[in-house]
């Protein structure tokens, strides 16, 4: 009887042990199956990224020996099979881009036609005439314009576009280059010592390229950008700018039209440039461009959007140039914002600390950040209303474009992994322009604009009214620029897929190595 009870207890324990062991084996098998499934999914992704249309492969085979992720004129092409290599600026090396092959005389003829419009007609188009003025009594004045801009990784192509528009119009130019991006990433200086090239390009004798170095990691984003921009005012002062001269600050991809710059130089009645009419009041003292937006190429024109830069201010209202004994220097918050009551807003509360009618001087940040300002448009019959141009995303290649979206402005996580058209609505517009898609066509991009603000002029440049940028009169340049972007777009997508494949393979190898080296038996390490 006792033996039977002992056998029964032993049998029960054996059964319990069997259940425990069986359950453990089941759990282990479950996780092994899950691991195998995950590995299978990863391999499926790798295979899918390897698949592209025969048309794209054929196109790639034609361009992979000549297309690199640096300049289109580069002599060292990258292997597309190796995947996308993230763009890194190189010290002393400026990307080229697509350049016009026309000689100087070609552009001189275009500028001559613009420059020789009668001063009365030009000033009338921008409402810059004296009251009751006539053709006979309208005589040109002679204002000096001093230009300033930041420089980063813009290609020579973009600077040539700006130079063709503004050739020989400025009395001095100041460029400022930093050794760090807005987000404190190190970048090499590329244009130091290239003053002679810029003097020849712009037809201007006095040009400075100033270096901005600030190793304080707490100064980031717009605070760093505007501190860098403040260097422009110091350069102007060194060049002899006076209270009667005009200060003009732009980003490197912006310019007033040549016709408008001639009006600023010559027209007798421009209220924003008359210190005595406003004493630096923020509503009246700043002149803003109404800029037509070109996205990445001359024929990709935003249809219903206007950019509200660049900007001009009379010297008497600019810090370092104007009289701080008359017009105060505004106290600041967050390095660049005017404090409350000193023009922080263009209303009674925003100006409550100004009691004598003399408003604060403009620092470089105020050119772009202050409230107020007057946007000037062209009202001449047969001409476009725009007084300025914004050449947005005019980079030498899309690898540079991705670097911008990774490192400047509002940085995007995964800028080298996303489809180009998924990075921003502007690039979705570029995608449609390059593929000649209408505004009614939809791409598969996640950045399709539901309100359809990002639409294109479907007729391209020739479907719009002049004034056109001087450089864009070259139809051969426009054709080559389009073909370059078409080739770049295909190469960029194939390289992006190879880039993702390389990262996935590295992740697979990492996981396999963890499993191989794990010292825990029968337990997965994750």
CATH architectural grouping of the domain at 106-392: Alpha-Beta Complex
| Unreliable sequence segments | 1-10, 16-22, 30-82
Radius of gyration, CA atoms, in whole angstroms: 31 Å
Read across the widest sheet, the strand sequence of neighbours is 3-2-1-4-9-6-12
Short structural summary:
With 526 residues, the protein is of the alpha/beta class.
Index terms:
alpha/beta; Spore Coat Polysaccharide Biosynthesis Protein SpsA, Chain A; 7-stranded mixed β-sheet; 4-stranded mixed β-sheet; 13 strands; disordered N terminus
Q: How would you portray this structure in words?
A:
With 526 residues, the protein is of the alpha/beta class. It has a domain at 106-392: Alpha-Beta Complex (Spore Coat Polysaccharide Biosynthesis Protein SpsA, Chain A), CATH 3.90.550. It has 13 helices and 13 strands. It has helices at residues 2-49, 54-63, 104-115, 119-125, 156-166, 195-202, 221-238, 258-266, 275-278, 366-369, 398-407, 425-434, 475-517; strands spanning 145-151, 172-178, 207-212, 246-249, 254-256, 286-289, 291-295, 301-307, 311-314, 332-333, 337-338, 374-376, 388-392. The strands form 3 sheets. It has a 7-stranded mixed β-sheet, sandwiched between helices. Strands 5-13-7-8 form a 4-stranded mixed β-sheet. Strands 10-11 form a two-stranded antiparallel ribbon. It is globular. The two termini are 51 Å apart. Mean pLDDT is 84; it is low at 1-10, 16-22 and 30-82.
């Amino acid at each position: 009887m006792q033996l039977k009870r002992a056998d029964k207890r032993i049998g029960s324990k054996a059964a319990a042990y069997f259940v425990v062991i069986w359950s453990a084996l089941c759990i282990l098998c479950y996780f092994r199956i899950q691991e195998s499934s995950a590995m299978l999914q990863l391999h499926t992704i790798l295979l899918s990224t390897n698949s592209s249309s025969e048309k794209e492969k054929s196109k790639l085979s034609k361009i992979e020996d000549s297309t690199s992720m640096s300049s289109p004129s580069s002599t060292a092409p990258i292997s597309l099979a190796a995947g996308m290599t993230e763009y890194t600026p190189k010290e002393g090396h400026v990307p080229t881009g697509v350049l016009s092959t026309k000689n100087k005389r070609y552009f001189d003829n275009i500028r001559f036609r613009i420059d020789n419009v009668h001063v009365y007609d030009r000033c009338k188009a921008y409402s810059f005439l004296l009251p009751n003025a006539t053709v006979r009594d309208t005589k040109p004045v002679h204002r000096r314009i001093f230009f300033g801009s930041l420089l980063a990784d813009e290609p020579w192509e973009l600077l040539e576009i700006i130079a063709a528009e503004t050739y020989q119009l400025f009395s001095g130019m100041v460029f400022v280059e930093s050794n760090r991006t807005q987000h404190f990433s190190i970048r090499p200086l590329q244009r130091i010592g290239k003053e002679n090239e810029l003097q020849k390009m712009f037809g201007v004798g006095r040009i400075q390229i100033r270096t901005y170095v600030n190793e304080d990691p707490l100064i980031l984003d717009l605070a760093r950008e505007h501190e860098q921009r403040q260097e422009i005012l110091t350069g102007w002062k060194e060049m002899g700018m006076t209270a009667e001269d005009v200060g003009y600050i732009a980003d490197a991809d912006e310019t007033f039209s040549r016709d408008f710059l001639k009006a600023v130089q010559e027209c007798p009645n421009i209220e924003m440039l008359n210190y005595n009419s406003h004493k630096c009041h923020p509503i009246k003292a700043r002149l803003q461009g109404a800029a037509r937006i070109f996205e990445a190429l001359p024929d990709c024109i935003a249809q219903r959007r206007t950019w509200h830069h660049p900007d001009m201010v009379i010297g008497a209202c600019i810090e370092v140039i104007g009289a701080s004994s008359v017009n105060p220097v505004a106290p600041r918050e967050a390095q660049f914002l005017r404090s409350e009551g000193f023009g922080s807003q263009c209303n009674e509360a925003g100006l409550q600390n100004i009691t004598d009618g003399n408003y604060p001087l403009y620092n470089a940040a105020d050119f772009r950040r202050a409230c107020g300002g007057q946007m000037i448009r062209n009202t001449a019959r047969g001409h476009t209303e725009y007084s300025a141009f914004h050449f947005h995303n005019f980079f030498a290649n899309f690898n540079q474009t991705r670097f911008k979206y990774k490192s400047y402005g509002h940085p995007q996580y995964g800028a080298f992994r996303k489809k180009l058209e998924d990075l921003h609505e502007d690039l979705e517009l570029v995608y449609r322009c390059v593929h000649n898609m209408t505004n009614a066509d939809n791409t598969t991009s996640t950045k399709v604009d539901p309100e359809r603000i990002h639409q294109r002029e479907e007729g391209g440049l020739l479907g719009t009214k002049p004034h056109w940028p001087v450089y864009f009169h070259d139809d051969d340049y426009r054709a080559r620029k389009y073909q370059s972007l078409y080739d770049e777009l295909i190469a960029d997508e194939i390289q992006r897929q190879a880039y993702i494949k390389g990262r996935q393979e590295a992740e697979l190898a990492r996981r396999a190595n963890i499993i191989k080296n794990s010292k825990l038996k029968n337990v997965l390490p994750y």
